[in-house]
Structures are given as structure tokens and as C-alpha cells.
């Protein structure tokens, strides 16, 4: 791409825990320490930042100053809508008070995003769904989801929102689980300022072909952000870019070029056992390498092979560019 | 349900082949022989019938007479859009002549459906998609798909059409692969007389929860037919109803009741190694058993447990009704 | 079964965290509090207990006294071999000092098991494996795994050990990922006092049919323990028993009867969003219900249907017993 | 590899059918025509040949002459044990007469293999298994499987046999479904002249990492053949080599080098919609390209990175070799 700019979720630089290593993978780090690590990644200059911040008394202004001092920028603000209070749902929680608390988190995030100059506020409704058959009134979950989207988008008409869909984790089954379902929810909400974050790994998990999902979202005019990483297809492993699916990543980059993407490409990685600076630097190096491969692809020949459905010819063109 | 009526795809009664047992599972049967077997299944009186018929000179009138004589009715007509001529796509075939041939098959099926008094013409675009990364221009596949839907629906404004989505097989990756994507394609086509056949097994394959997919399709006003069967989740095994997923089937039947379903429930089974009459009779017996269980469920208590997200209480209500 | 006795992993009663709700699902609880909750579950009297205990200065003697006072018994002791220190492997960690630390944890667990009168020490090598293609020398991982099994089993010839296999989580890919691979590793170790914990959910994740895996492990004389729970097949959701897969659970119980199982049946659940006492009580109720169904099955008729491969007849026998 | 030699299953050159396109993908071809096509693939000189031949009166001597005339050789003979007669199992069929018929097919194949000078006779027990929960007596299926292996291997002590495992298709669930289970069955049979065909795609389907499975089979001294192709992980799509999983294929080739592989590498492809000569030629070109990449990898550095579990360093070494 003419202007390849990179961002990352700040969580890559913090202490990760899971249900087994409850004492964590790597050391605990302050917001400042995480940002300092981020600044060490060659090519990385945008961040998706969670709010509330880890330190309760840290102000948005302080974070803005930290970013500025390190040459970083906020690409997005993602309110924590999946922590303890929201484990039975944020927008769809059975308790109206919790649903209000979720909205309050979004209102606060909108303010922080404005202070940080972030491009969008991300909804990641990872606890909104259900766990086992028979448990859920799906129509009710849908209504609560759509109502929340509508209400929040309407309350902040100047703010761009974006939903990151995912089929499962942490909730066993998540309501907004794939690209098309999320597009329908946004339609139902009837709002213009809500789009989609297309996360490559979530798309694989959802059984989609990521480049195909991207064109669908773009066609509907809802592509707000694109995140890269990789996994073994059944779970959100958040591995380095193209560590498993090289051609699907290449194809995704081709699709971004085709829609004229000029915004940052974000990394959503969880380097459980790796040095985060090394892991993210490697992903950026990989994307640059694949972007150079895109440059070498004879796009007209590829389009022609695709028009004829000549799969072998198409594969040969990709191999020639990569190898 | 007040009025539980059953149908089946006629293919359950014919000779099945696959890429290994190319000489077939069971004997070859004429259309007449298949219909006679269907008539032996207790409770079965509707059929989804493929066209062209196996015998080239069999007329629709003859089939209508056969059906009538056996006390059977046509629920749907499904044109063969996935046979040899269409292996690289019907609506999205790279060859315009083949795309026209696919439309001609649909035009013919519309005529046959009228003669048989069938409720809908089914599109099952199982060859429309791609095989490997890099092969497809997804935007182009989408346009060709939407164009075909629009053109055919517009040409036959009095005919009800219904699309049966499926993520793969026979094509390695199918364009209309899940419920929400198919709803978006119908929207794009801008037609009123096209809806969806919700096949339980295809929904499992697509990573959906079938009862959740059903409410989504219903909410959009596009539910035309419902098909039952079962599988091991990764592939379209077309097994007897609830042989693997009992509670998800029960929940699906509850969802049908909730939307006021009063049309036949269809069986889409491939009894590779079983007697088809026994296999389908067993499925109907299972559905009746589960329908009786639905009758026993305290729906208000279930709704209340769902509203509270009390999963254990919901499960207890289902178990009490089944056991 | 003649003598249906139940146990559970103690973790069901503690605070669960994951990588998103890092502040936990439910309140933090002391060992005493967890045991008191366990004692409230009707029918539960055995526990699989992790070591080191949460409280560093809690002695095995104190835990033994607590158990005794509550009418509970230790079924197993499971050393924490997957916490922070071991995130790059316990038995296969690249650092020899960490491999020694893992052995030391096992030595300690053996002592605790003796004090608690536990039936076995469980190896759950959830961090032993790898993350992405190219990373691992599989032969080396295998040797380190087999060496550790051999060394530990040889060091404690009076102790029964049991390995719980699982294909992934927390490690992205786990070396001992299915039943047969684990049997081969035990063979390679050449020891008699190591067997297998067959966890129903892990078996589903591994693409196995749990009852089939059980007969394989039993045939090799290596069945030490059996754990029940359920999931949606792709991930270890640790849901209530038979909440998704009713017939596969029934078949598993039939297989346990057939091998003459007279040991406790354990529950491995993570009730993230449920009351643990309610969630585990419900599972025990379910198992009792299914055990009563087993009692009603005409086993000779079932065996006869199986011998003829009459799948429909076999299904009818199961349905008749359940409904 | 020092001596990279290629083979393929002859089925790639014939007419493929499936349960939808029952009239076939591509034209019907005689054995002669298939062999002539095979001879056109640059680099291909070994074949895995099915028996009985398509033409009932074709003799093994005629096929030997055809092969010789075209500069081809038989690598393996694979008896049809999965056609109509065997749809409820070959070795495990409930009917003893069918089990005898299966053995007769193997006896005949042994004779043909001798006449053709083939390296091994392949068992591909794709119909041996079951379809739905409750249907099978797993212990009985195991015994029948092991008995057949033992009896056939003992009857032909000079013949090398090899089993190709696969988790499903055509049977819904196949008894010999993964590498380790198959190794245990061979052990139980107690024979020396039976090994394993490691098919890359079947290994992916089984949830294995193919290079890891290969080392396991090699360690047990049972690696007889290796087949390459690719798929989307959930099904046996039999796509061109590395069209989806580039690094896993590269790693598989590295593993073959490490075990000193000097036998042909076979292609197991089903080019449903592609020209078979083009599709197989492309795969050979890909393998050669990846073999050249293997040559460029600093194996000592890779081993060192693996020993340290430095996943990023290992990935960088692979990327440097490929790009």
C-alpha cells in the first residue's frame, strides 16, 4: 500500500493471564511501561487503548501526553465491556443496572477518545451471548444488542463506532459472531456512525474467508478498521501475522489495496510466551514483506485468472510473487 | 405444533453415490419407485422433488398423477444446479452460456412447480463458490449471485423462491454459506419473493446455533422452509433427527412454535447405509416425541429463566420435559 | 452403576479468571470456603485437589482435617504444572532448572497425595507443546515428555499416576493431545504405574468419540479415572454434563458399566457464570438420570443391533430408555 | 532432498463423482488414458494404482506393460475396499461373507502388486467405522480390525502393507482415524510388515500437526509412505500442495529430510474442477520450490531456536528461506 501504517492493541504489552496461569505470563506493567514498549516496535505508531486505564487515577490528558512524548497516537479506544461486572453480558445483561453501567463505560470512552484524538470507539461485546442450549431467548438478546447500538450511536452522532465480531470467547457463544450478522444488527439499529472492525483471526474462527468477509463489509460501507494476526482456525490464538495462513493473509492485503485502504493496519496479538516487542516487530516485517509481494503481483493477470476460475493459474501468480 | 406435517427430500429414496462408492449405496430406483417408498413412511406426505427428473421423458403431469395416486404432495421443486454442467458454478459460472443454462433450469422448475402445486422453488447453489485461496474475485461472485437472484425472482413474481445456504460441499467454499450472508444477498437483490430454507444441519456446519439462526431469518421475514436432520457439526452427515444434538433440536422446535410455524417440517437425510423408510420413519417418530416434550415445557418458566440468564434452571426445564 | 459415586475438581468452587475478565468470575475463596461449597453438593464426596494450595502455609494435614470434617475425600492431587513458571512447558521446558522445578512439584504432590489418601496423582501437562509451525522439535518434545514420565513413575513406584490429555489450552498445541498418543508415550516410558484420566470434554475436543476412546484406554489396561462435562466440540467449555451431547454421554456411561467401573465419576466443570453448587448438583442429577436410563436399556438387544450394524434399531433403544 | 521422486494416486486422472454431481467432474477415462495423462506430468513417475482395475478383463501384465511403455512405475496397489459391497465396512462388516470378500480383494492385490513390482499394498479402510452415537460396539470393531490386519499380514509375510488413516469420509466416523490409534492397532496385530501411509491432508483433518505425526510414526519404525496435498483443515479437500498451509508443508518436508526419506513423495489430489496434469504439475513445482527453501534453511540455527523455544527466531528462519 502507498502508505503502510501500523497500530496495535495495547494489551500485547501488558501482563496476560488465563484460567490456568492465573499468575500471569510475564511481568505486570504500568500504562507508561506498556506505551514505552510499544514505542520500541519498529513501524508501530498507533494504538488501540483500553479504558478504564489500569491505574484508576490516570487521566486521559496524562495518557495523551505520554503518547505524544513517545511519538505514538491513539487509533481507537476500547471500553472494558467484558470484565467481571459484565460476565453475563454488557448490552444484553439481564440486570438493567449493569446494562446502564455498560453504557456509562461507552460514554466515558467517547470522552477519552475525543481527548486522545482516536479514530473510533470499539465495541467488543465478548460477553454478550450465551453458554449452553436452551439458555437464551435469542430474539431478546438481539433486541437488547440492537437497542444498545442505536442508543449509543445516537447519543454520540459525531463519534465513529466500530464493532469487532467474534464467534466465541470469553462467552461460549457470542451474539455478534460473524460479519454478516453484525451488518444486519447495524442495519436494524438504523445508524450511520457504526461500522465493523474486521479482525483476521476472528474471521477465520467464524469459518469465513477473511478477504471475502472484508469485501462484504466494504460493499455495505461499514469497514472501519482491519486487524491482523493468525490462528489455527478453531480458536483465537492471536499468533504473529501469517505464521499459519500465508496465502489468506496475502489475499487479505490484496483486498485492502483494492478497497483503497489508507488507514492503519492493526495488530491484535497476545504474545503469551514471546517478547512482545519481538513478536510485533516480526509481524510488521511480515506484512511489509507480503505488501512487497502484492506489489509484484500482476493484478490484471490475477483478475483474468479469477474471471476464468483458473485456480492453478491464480496460485502460480501468488507463488511467483512470494517466492 | 398444532398441526405437525412432514415432508422429505426425494433423494433420500434414491441411489446415493459418493467419490469412493461410485457404484452406489443401495439399488437404483425410478421416480415411481422412490415415490412409492416415500408413501410408506408413516406421516410423510410432502416431498421436495428434483428437476430434471431422472427419466428424461417423464412429464410433470405424470409426476403429479403419481403423487396424487400415492396421497403425496409436492412441497418444493429443486432444480439440479450442481450437476456436471455446473461444477464450476451455476449463477457464478465463468461461462455466460452456463449461467444462462442455470437460469433455464430455474425457468423450467418454475413451470414444474406450478404443475405440481409446490409451495416454492429452491435454490441450492452448492457449486457456487471457490476452492482455494487466491482463486476468487469475491466481489464478482457476489454480484453474479445477486444478479441471478434478482433476475429470476423478477421474472417469476408469482413464484416463491427459497435459498438453502451451506458453507461447503460440493464446492469447497460456498458463497451463500450462512444465514446472515444469505439475508444480505436477498436484500441486495431487492426482491420480495425470495426467502430462506433453514436446514438444521447446514446451520450446525456454519457454526450457527440453528434456533438462533431461525429467529434471525424470521425477524427479517424470510423464513420459507425448515429442514431437519443431524450431523457431527463439521460436515453435512444428514443423519436422523436428534441422533447427535437432542437439545438443539428441541430448541429449534420451540423456536418454530414461537414463530407460529404451520408449514411442513422437512427431512433432509441421506440414509447411505440404512433402509430409507426406516430411517425417515424414525426421524418423524423422534420429532413427534420432541414435539410432545415441547408441549410439556412450562414456556413461561423457561422464558423467565432465560430472562434471568439462569442457564441451570433452563436446562432443568428441558430435561424435565424430555425425560 | 451399582455404586455411583461422584467427585469434582476443586477449581469449580474457586474464582475463575480468563484473559478478558482478569478480575474474575465470582468472589475469591479460601481452600476452606471451596471445600465447604463442595460439601453442599448433593452426592459429591470426592475431590481432585490442586497443589500447591492457594494459601502458602496451609499444610496437607490441615487439608486432610478439613476434608474429614466435611465428610469429603481426596480422589486425586493435581500439581500446578501450568502456572507462570511453566508457561513454556513443565516436562519439556527449554530450561533444565524449570524441568527440575516441575519434578519437584510432582514429588511434593506425591507426598500430599499420601497424606490425603488420594487415589492418584494427576499430570495435566497443559503447557507442554508449542504455539506455531516451525517452532518445535517434535522428537525432542517427545523425548523430554517420556523421560519425565519414566523418571517420576520410577521414583514413586507405589504411587498411581494418571495423565489427562487435551489437544490445546493453555498451550496452543499440546504434545499429549489425544488418547492413543498418550498411550504410546506411557508405553515408551515403560512404566506400570501411569495411566490415563479420560476427560469427556477433552476427548470431544480431540475429535474422538469418548466411549470409543474409553474402550481403547481400557483395552490397554490404562484407565485410571473418568471425568464428565460437556462442550460445543471445538473448545473445552467445561459445561454441565450432557447439556449438549446427550447420547454420547449415555454411551460413555454404558461403556463405563461394561468395563466394570467402580470408582468415582468426576466432574470437571468451570461454572464461569453459574452458582457452582447448583451447576454441579445439576450434573450429578443428570448422571443419575442417565444411569437410570442405562438400567432401562435392553443391553442384549443393543448388542445385537450393534452386531448387525442396525443404527436405527440402536437409536430406538436409546430413545426408549431416555424418553 | 537428495533424490526427490514423485508419485500420485491414479484417481487424480479419472472421472470423479460425488453425491451431487453424480454425472461426474470431467470425462470418463480408461486405465490407459489415465496412465497417459500421468506420464504427461513433469517429474511424475510413480503411481498408486487401484485394483480391481476399471476394465474387468484388464490383466496385471497389461498394466505392467502400459506402465513400462510410458516410463512409469507402480509405487503401490490399493484394493477397492470401500465400494458398494463394503459400504458397511470391509474388515469390520457385520457379514462374515463380506469380510471374506474384503480379504480376497487384498489377496488379489498382493498378487497384482508383485506383478507390477509395487513397493506396498495399501489398506484404506474408509468404510470401517460407524455413523451415529450408540450404533457401534467399539471393542468389536477394534477386534475385527486387528484380526484382519494380523491375518492378512501373516498370510503374506513378504509383502509390505501400509494403512492410510483418516478420521471420516466415506464412513461418518472411521475406526483408524489418526496416527497413534493406527500404530496401536498395528501393535495389537503383532506384525512386522504393516506400516503407515502418512497423508498430510488426513493428518490435518485428524487435528494433528503433520510433521509431528510423521516423527511419531517414524519413531515407531512404521513410516512406509508419505502423501502430500492440502485442505481447509475440516475436510479432505485434496487440494494442490501448500495451497493453504505453506509453513506446515515446509515443516513436513524438513521432517522427511530429517528421517532420511529416500522414497517417492506421493500426491493424493482430487482435481474436481481443474485439469489434472496442470494441478499435479503445479504441486510438484511447489514441492521442488519448498525443497529448495529447505536447502536454504540454516538447520543448526533452526534447531537452536527450537531448543530455546524461540518461536519468533524459528519463524524468521522459515520466512528467510521462503521469501
UniProtKB/TrEMBL annotation, chains A, B, C, D:
Quaternary context: Homotetramer.
Top-level EC class: isomerase
Lineage: Bacteria, Bacillati, Actinomycetota, Actinomycetes, Kitasatosporales
PROSITE patterns per UniProt: XYLOSE_ISOMERASE
Family: Belongs to the xylose isomerase family.
Biological source species: Streptomyces johnsoniae
Enzymatic reactions: alpha-D-xylose = alpha-D-xylulofuranose
Superkingdom of this protein's organism: Bacteria
Keywords, ordered alphabetically: Carbohydrate metabolism, Cytoplasm, Isomerase, Manganese, Metal-binding, Xylose metabolism
One Pfam family per UniProt: AP_endonuc_2
Protein name: Xylose isomerase
EC number: 5.3.1.5
